[in-house]
UniProtKB/TrEMBL annotation:
This is Cytochrome P450. PANTHER family: P450, PUTATIVE (EUROFUNG)-RELATED. Gene3D superfamilies: Cytochrome P450 (1.10.630.10). The lineage of its organism: Bacteria, Bacillati, Actinomycetota, Actinomycetes, Propionibacteriales. Belongs to the cytochrome P450 family. InterPro entries: Cyt_P450, Cyt_P450_B, Cyt_P450_CS, Cyt_P450_sf.
Length: 422
């Protein structure tokens, strides 16, 4: 007597067995989202969400770091969106984050020199002066809109300078970046799609006009000129490729450090003893910044299976499946970080994933660390203590990068230190 083998599990069966829907744009607080991810980690560490066009959701450090290390070895980064759609509005693909292999390597060789430790360190005096001019604009008032008064313009102006873009366009670019990355917070999918379409149209007009102007104006020592003059695969970049590069540099440059600053200041306002601990000794600040980076971790990548099949978190996924994972999920894994939701400045040093891992590790990580060090140092010197304004409530958002808006601070008024402020 013979018995027939059990039929192989189909992809539909695998998805159904691990089904737990996930909304990357949910109108939750970040901590509520992290609580939901923690529950997933305990009961279904890899799950399939049928929301939108479907994706697999990872929650554990080891699984997330494994996928990040396998870029171009089973996974590619295009499209870098959980629904597999072009939410950011690139013409072809965001450069360099959605490129892989030899093409990605060439784009990183173009960009990396402008964000090297030596080049970034040379910005120290400029960044310190800029931080203090921004603080001067509101320090006498005893209160401030921290987003518009510091967290946006401080890193934003630096990125615009490196890129060679007009400083007066900072707020317009931030509006575009916010719409593309976060959608309409609290709005419907249709409202988000409509807002993104408008932002994309405005961005396209803006940058294609700038590209034409910069092609005609000659060389400047900035990334825009370097990109216009660069050769990739032996050819100059097209206007479309330049647009896709600038789109990514705008979004990453304006959103990430802004998010870490805002999340951190909201947390520190509620935990003033931590604000003191950051500066307890000259050696205290850098590990505190790394811990805040671990805890905040705004980025939310997606990877796509391109081999016939790959193993992820104990499952075999076929070609075409998407894998989505907030980097904060890895950074809050209790297997690596005891009491992961707590901010512990003296916790044992372990590498966090706030800047990613592998070939797509953030090109601007050295700049981000310097910006945070200077920002916190100058804010501490000028604002020894502060609190959240009682008349305003910070608004957290999820999306393609997590953050918080409407951060209003109060503090004892201080004196301006630079001429020409306000």
């Amino acid at each position: 007597m013979t018995t027939s083998a059990a039929p192989a599990e189909t992809l539909d069966d695998l998805r159904a067995r691990h089904r737990r829907d996930y909304d990357p744009y949910a109108a939750w607080s970040i901590q509520e989202h992290m609580d939901e991810i923690a529950e997933r980690r305990d009961v279904l560490p890899i799950s399939y969400s049928a929301r939108g066009n479907g994706c697999w959701v990872l929650t554990r450090y080891d699984d997330i770091s494994s996928v990040l290390r396998r870029n171009n070895r089973g996974f590619v980064s295009f499209p870098n969106e959980p629904d597999g759609i072009n939410a950011m509005g690139s013409e072809i693909q965001q450069i360099p984050i959605e490129t892989d292999g030899a093409l990605h390597k060439q784009f990183r060789q173009l960009l990396d020199p402008y964000f090297s430790p030596k080049r970034v360190e040379a910005l120290t005096d400029q960044l310190t002066g800029w931080a203090n001019r921004l603080i001067d604009d509101w320090v006498e008032d005893g209160e401030c809109d921290f987003v518009d008064g510091f967290a946006l313009p401080f890193p934003g102006a630096t990125v615009l300078t490196i890129m060679g873009w007009p400083a007066e366009d900072l707020h317009r670019m931030n509006h575009w970046a916010s719409t593309l990355m976060h959608g309409v917070v609290g709005g419907t999918a249709e409202e988000t799609a409509a807002a993104r379409a408008v932002a994309h149209g405005e961005l396209r007009d803006y940058w294609f006009a700038m590209i034409a102007e910069r092609r005609a104006s000659g060389h400047l020592d900035d990334v825009t000129s370097a990109a216009i003059e660069a050769e990739i695969d032996g050819e100059r970049l097209t206007d479309t490729q330049l647009f896709d590069l600038f789109l990514l540099m705008m979004a990453a440059g304006l959103d990430t450090v802004q998010s870490v600053l805002c999340q951190s200041m909201v947390y520190l306002a509620a935990h003033p003893e931590k604000w003191d601990a950051m500066f307890a000794t000259p050696e205290s600040l850098e590990p505190a910044i790394e811990e805040l980076l671990r805890w905040c971790a705004p980025a939310v990548p997606t990877r796509n299976v391109v081999h016939e099949e790959v193993e992820v978190a104990g499952l075999v996924l076929p070609k075409g499946e998407r894998v989505h994972f907030p980097l904060a999920a890895a950074n809050r894994d209790p297997a690596y970080y005891p009491d992961p939701d707590e901010v512990i400045f003296d916790r044992a040093a372990k590498p966090h994933l706030a800047f990613g891992l592998g070939t797509h590790r953030c090109v601007g990580l050295h700049l981000a660390r310097l910006e945070l060090k200077i920002a916190f140092t100058q804010l501490r010197r000028r604002l020894p203590s502060f609190a959240l304004h009682p008349d305003y409530t910070p608004r957290e958002h999820l999306g393609l990068a997590w953050g918080v808006d409407n951060v209003r601070l109060t503090f004892v008024p201080g004196a301006r230190e630079t001429e020409g402020s306000r």
